[in-house]
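Researcher: Structure prediction, please.
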Amino acid sequence: MWGSSTCDFLGVKPLNGQRRENLVFRADDKYDYDASWTTWNSDPIINQDYVPKVVADALGKTTVTDEEMKAFFEAIPTRKDSCFVEARKLRDAQCGIDLSKNFSEQSSNMTNLKNFYLYNLIRKERKGDGRDSGHNDLFINFRPKYYFLGLSSGAQTANKTLLQTCCWESQYAAASFDPLAE
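Model: Predicted structure follows.
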């Protein structure tokens, strides 16, 4: 149809021969990381690195002390939430990547995002795809028929003229439809 594979058409690398690993990220220890922070405005990186910048801007300063921040938030208690929203916007403006734009136009954000992950987060790799009995990594090996599931017996009963996908047997119809045939 496109003169090559679907992966070529979409511009992606085929999964065959690759592994999927699970990566877990958490805040770096310098943030006094506590796994109990679970509220939307308790992110230690935002609170320590970005909220002070937002407060300093609001006060017309370049930096603020802890006492100035405390006084700023005590004056109007709802300020903390609005400052947190602004701090997230600041972080996103510095580190966010717009996938609808060309990456070459976003090189500073790409560098900032890389540095954000490098200096603010701890990465832990966990087992993703399986391993064999010798603890050797197994790699993805999709076969073409994996992409086309057979029809259920209910679908076969309700649709007598619907052909069953080849390689999938059914008690209601012989497998006669080959989705890979040209």
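Model: The helical segments are 6-10, 44-59, 66-75, 79-95, 107-120, 153-158.
Researcher: Thanks, that helps.
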